[in-house]
Specification:
CATH superfamily of chain C: MetI-like
Structural class of chain B: mainly alpha
CATH topology of chain B: MetI-like fold
CATH class of chain C: Mainly Alpha
Oligomer: heterotrimer
CATH superfamily of chain B: MetI-like
Order of helices and strands of chain C: HHHHHHHHHHHHH
Strand content of chain B: under 5%
Shape of chain C: globular
CATH architecture of chain C: Orthogonal Bundle
Largest sheet of chain C: none
Distance between the termini of chain B: 36 Å
Largest interface: B-C, 93 and 93 residues
Structural class of chain C: mainly alpha
Strand content of chain C: under 5%
CATH topology of chain C: MetI-like fold
Radius of gyration of chain B: 23 Å
Largest sheet of chain B: none
Radius of gyration of chain C: 24 Å
Distance between the termini of chain C: 51 Å
Number of strands of chain B: 0
Number of domains of chain C: 1
CATH class of chain B: Mainly Alpha
Number of domains of chain B: 1
Number of helices of chain C: 13
Order of helices and strands of chain B: HHHHHHHHHHHHH
């Protein structure tokens, strides 16, 4: 075997050192040069999931209108995006702008990673705050400062199989939890032991939390410094959620155990699925043509009639580390134009956060979107604490403990409150300290 | 037990274990050629009904696997060549050159073999950040430039170099560095090959540190990108298998060609010779 | 240049790299573990407080730490003997005089070691699928009901153990094979002439002669298995019900998901102490056996 390294036999110290120096220089150069220099402005944008896949289509037009700007989009998977954002912040490796889930905004704002956008908005003709749904715009305002521009809204609805429901004897979509229980029981009786009525993935916290916000009791109390998960309202929502598993309406599975969620929906493995607007586009794409008339969307039933849901969605944010804030703002304005928002909706099914976009006939007459419109006016923000992502994970864990671990809801909720209080301990002490300083 | 029966049993057992070892890899290859969605069927298919390159096309055209493989190649090659220099020099020094504190220093360095690398990762990340090496090739390459395992391996081997050769050269008036370059290095050729393939394989397969230090897609190595893809495309199993094939094949091929050296190094590093 | 200077010069690059990028971070990690570095400190370093051994106390009173410890010990306690038994069995088969095509078999059995963990974890995740996985399909032929490998907390760790054994048994097999090949055949000849059965030969010749190699293999495998991380990260993300959260996975989440770097560093050091203790125990156990 030939050795990969040979040194001249007349070698002396200088040559040896020279080679070493060259190698070190090469190593340094590899570290230093991260990008080739260009005279065009290159914006780095991070997108999450499906949105990152479709946004390049819109960006082609943007680049035509602004020839000196190029946009590089990178897609982050949803399950790893939060980690990646924080790691990038810690490593000074954040991009220029990103799509940021609005429940993560308080966290990034607390870190000081985001640039306030109010000055840009004040001078803008494209972005009119009054045109946006109130609850959605509000999620971007932290301690009185605006940190993001809503890009699309996401609220969870129930997608369902019309044909299976009709065959089970349910003529109209349920509006209250009591009616929903009846419907789920009927569907389960109809489809038999091998299939289920509803899919509630155990690795997601959204289904449970969306049910929980329909109750009046808030999720956190004491100025968002303590958990309120033992309140009567949360207990009711939790009981309804657990009932679905105890009565075998929902399988004890996480999303990764469902091989392909669209195929399974098409096969009737479950008839109800709580998910967001992007799946409107996915269902249209992936379900076979013969099933396209057999599914529909309905607002989430509430305890006494259709309730609200969490005002989810993503905003576009500008990172303080960015060296091209003006160009980023031009991109944000472009993506906020009603025409672009409608194109975006066509591409992936995401819903615009502006009322003027909804006025367009394409959306106004969309039968899938109308249920969302109804719920958007009632959407409520999640608690705006930086630790929210961590608390939400604890909620998910609590639901898993109660379902898979068969633990008593009382114990699980008591532990959940305790964990939440632990997580918020730093926030409590910081708030107390700042109060004393005043 | 007569020879024939025991022969059948032994070889039969070997075939069974080999099947256990190889089947997942062969099945990975098979699924990568299946139509999207074909593998999610009951009963699970073993061979594709209509083999297709569609998954590979999607992998390279849409998921950008080419870039990730390129990054892996650059990183693994750089680490291999550069760390080879450092480890060879240090291994020889610890084996043959008497310098003050040598043995005590080596013993305390051995402690490094016991400390899990992850202990150092957190501050190392902050150090890389201050050197502006986060999210670049350097962030992965620089910390791997010397390894205790490599030094240990070279030292083990170098100790077998006859002392007389070195003494003779010294008497002839050759300087220490010249002895290293002209006499020792050629003698170390076998261990160079072994260490090279060892280092290349382990740096290609390395996962946790590149996961932490490379956030930008453009710099990610193949295993890190594959982990990201597997979370994003948790539904597209055939695509994931194609990604696995493409990430595993280069090192598997390299191993098949150079296995003699790899195994020799494994033994040298483990069994006190 | 004299020998002393040459020695220092040649070892300098490696020493600098190891010093700067390993030993210094390890010391820094210890210092970090004495602070409450978290998200707020990441935003503004002035938020940092020294909590001395507060992190260690906090970690040791957390149920999740003990759960991760139990999970890790389960993995080590079952995985290591299983892995070594598989390696020894394969090595003995390869060493047998009756074995044919030894080169091919040796390569085949070693192949999983060389593969990338991430890539094969993806395959195994699919093989273990409850409905479409080939493992349950095969078990069904033996009349066993489908097992929810990655969804049932009781079966998730066994699934990971099975995967880890598959991936690693080839490595120790090679070392044990070398050990077996160094046993003088005359010993077996003499025993056979004396009328010893195969089992007796194994117990009284093979095992004692292999003792040092077995000890080495055990130490390597134990310390490696304590560092379980990639498999849970790719296959289960710690689920279900945190039954596959290992100590290192717990550290990763605390450190790189939630940025509680102080606490994460404390966990890392606790893990190191654990590995050190296990290794010392193994060595002492091995030495005692030798004197017997």
């Amino acid at each position: 075997m030939q050795a990969p390294v040979t040194i001249q036999s007349s070698g002396n110290v200088r040559q040896h050192a020279g080679l070493v120096g060259l190698m070190l220089g090469l190593a340094a150069a590899l570290g230093g040069c991260a990008r080739e220099p260009t005279d065009r402005v290159v914006l780095r944008m991070w997108g999450i999931g499906r949105e990152a896949e479709v946004v390049p289509a819109l960006l082609a037009d943007f680049e035509r209108l602004h020839p000196s700007i190029r946009v590089d989009v990178q897609a982050l998977p949803l399950t790893g995006a939060h980690e990646k954002l924080l790691t990038a912040f810690a490593g000074d490796a954040l991009p220029d702008l990103a799509q940021l889930g609005n429940t993560w905004l308080p966290e990034m704002a607390a870190l000081g990673a985001l640039s306030p956008l109010q000055p840009f908005v004040a001078a803008s003709r494209v972005i009119q705050p009054a045109d946006y749904f109130g609850g959605i715009w509000d999620t971007n305002v932290i301690d009185g400062e605006l940190f993001g521009i809503p890009w699309y809204v996401d609220t969870r609805l129930a997608f369902y199989r019309k044909d299976i429901l009709e065959a089970a004897g349910i003529p109209a979509p349920p509006r209250t939890w009591a009616e929903w229980s009846t419907a789920l029981a009927a569907v389960k009786a109809h489809v038999g032991p091998e299939r289920y009525a509803i899919l509630l993935p155990l690795n997601e916290y959204e289904p449970l939390l969306n049910l929980a916000v329909q109750e009046a009791d808030p999720l956190l109390k004491d100025n968002d410094t303590r958990g309120n998960f033992q309140s009567a309202g949360f207990r009711r929502a939790f009981a309804f959620y657990l009932d679905a598993f105890h009565k075998d309406w929902a399988p004890e599975m996480s999303a990764t155990q469902i091989s392909n969620v669209w195929d399974e929906f098409g096969a009737g493995f479950f008839s109800y699925f709580i998910t967001g607007p992007w799946n409107v586009g996915e269902f249209k794409r992936r379900l076979p043509r013969r099933l396209q008339n057999d599914w529909a969307t309905m607002p989430l039933p509430g305890p006494n009639g259709p309730g609200g849901a969490i005002a989810g969605g993503s905003s576009l944010v500008l990172f303080k580390q960015s060296k091209h804030p003006r160009e980023v703002w031009q991109l944000i304005e472009f993506l906020s134009e009603p025409a672009q928002q409608l194109r975006f909706h066509e591409l992936c099914g995401d819903l615009p956060p502006r009322r003027s976009s909804w006025a367009d006939p394409a959306l106004a007459s969309d039968r899938y979107a109308s249920a969302f419109r109804e719920q958007l006016e009632n959407a409520k923000p999640a608690p705006k604490v930086p630790e929210w992502e961590r608390i939400a994970q604890q909620v998910r864990l609590a639901s898993e403990r109660a379902v898979r671990g068969h633990e008593s809801p009382d114990i699980v909720l008591r532990d959940l409150d305790q964990r939440t209080d632990e997580i918020l301990e730093k926030r409590r002490s910081m708030l107390a300290a700042s109060k004393e300083r005043k | 037990m007569n020879a024939r029966v025991s022969g059948v049993l032994v070889n039969g057992a070997l075939v069974a274990i080999a099947a256990f070892a190889l089947f997942p890899l062969l099945w990975m290859l098979s699924v990568s050629f299946m139509q999207p969605g074909e593998a999610s069927a009951f009963p699970p298919p073993i061979l594709p009904a209509h083999a297709t390159f569609a998954n590979y096309r999607e992998l390279f055209e849409r998921a950008g696997m080419g870039r990730y493989l390129f990054n892996s190649l650059i990183v693994a090659s750089a680490i291999t060549t550069l760390s080879l220099l450092c480890n060879l020099a240090a291994g020889y020094a610890f084996a043959k050159l008497r310098f003050r504190g040598r043995d005590r220093l080596f013993k305390s360095l051995l402690v490094a073999l016991l400390i899990p690398a992850q202990v150092a990762m957190i501050p190392l990340f902050l150090i890389m950040k201050s050197l502006h090496l986060v999210n670049s090739y350097g962030g992965v390459i620089v910390p791997a430039l010397a390894t205790m395992f490599g030094i240990y391996l070279v030292r083990q081997y170098a100790r077998s170099i006859p002392q007389e050769l070195i003494e003779a050269a010294r008497i002839d008036g050759a300087g220490e560095l010249r002895i290293f370059a002209t006499i020792v290095l050629p003698l170390l050729k076998p261990i160079v090959a072994t260490l090279a393939i060892f280092t290349f394989l382990s740096s290609w397969n390395d996962f946790m540190w590149p996961l932490i230090v490379l956030s930008d897609e453009a710099w990610q190595t193949a295993p890190v990108a594959l982990a990201g893809l597997s979370r994003e495309h948790v539904q597209d199993n055939e695509l994931m298998m194609a990604g696995s094939v493409v990430t595993t094949l280069p090192v598997l091929a390299l191993f098949l060609v150079l296995q003699r050296h790899y195994i020799q190094g494994l033994l040298l590093g483990s069994v006190k010779g | 240049m004299n020998e002393n200077r040459a020695g220092w010069l040649l070892s300098a690059p490696a020493l600098i790299v190891l010093g700067a990028f390993f030993f210094v971070p390890v010391l820094a990690a210890f210092a970090l573990s004495l602070t409450d570095f978290d998200l707020y400190a990441l935003a503004d370093l002035h938020n940092l407080r020294f909590v001395w051994f507060g992190n260690y106390v906090d970690v040791l009173t957390r149920p999740l730490f003990w759960k991760s410890l139990v999970n890790t010990l389960y993995f080590v306690g079952v995985g290591v003997p299983l892995s070594i038994a598989a390696s020894l069995g394969s090595a003995m088969l390869l060493d047998s005089q009756r074995a044919r095509w030894k080169g091919f078999f040796r390569t085949a059995l070693f192949a999983p070691v060389v593969t990338t963990v991430v890539a094969v974890a993806v395959i195994w995740r699919y093989l273990l699928h409850t409905r479409y996985g080939l493992i349950n399909y095969t078990l069904a032929h033996f009349g066993i009901a489908p097992i929810d490998w990655l969804g049932d907390p009781h079966w998730s760790m066994p699934a990971i153990i099975l995967f880890a054994v598959w991936k690693n048994f080839g490595y120790n097999m090679i070392i044990l094979l070398a050990g077996l090949q160094s046993i003088p055949p005359d010993l077996y000849e003499a025993a056979r002439i004396d009328g010893a059965s195969a089992t007796q030969q194994f117990r009284h010749i093979t095992l004692p002669m292999l003792r040092p190699v077995l000890l080495l293999v055990s130490i390597i495998t134990v310390s490696g298995y304590f560092q379980l991380f990639a498999e849970p990260y790719v296959m289960t993300q710690g689920d279900p019900l945190q039954s596959t959260v290992s100590v290192l996975y717990f550290m990763y989440e605390e450190g790189f998901k939630w940025w509680s770097l102080g606490r994460a560093s404390a966990i890392a050091f606790l893990l190191f102490a654990l590995i050190l203790a296990a290794t010392v125990l193994l060595q002492r156990f091995g030495r005692r056996g030798e004197m017997a």
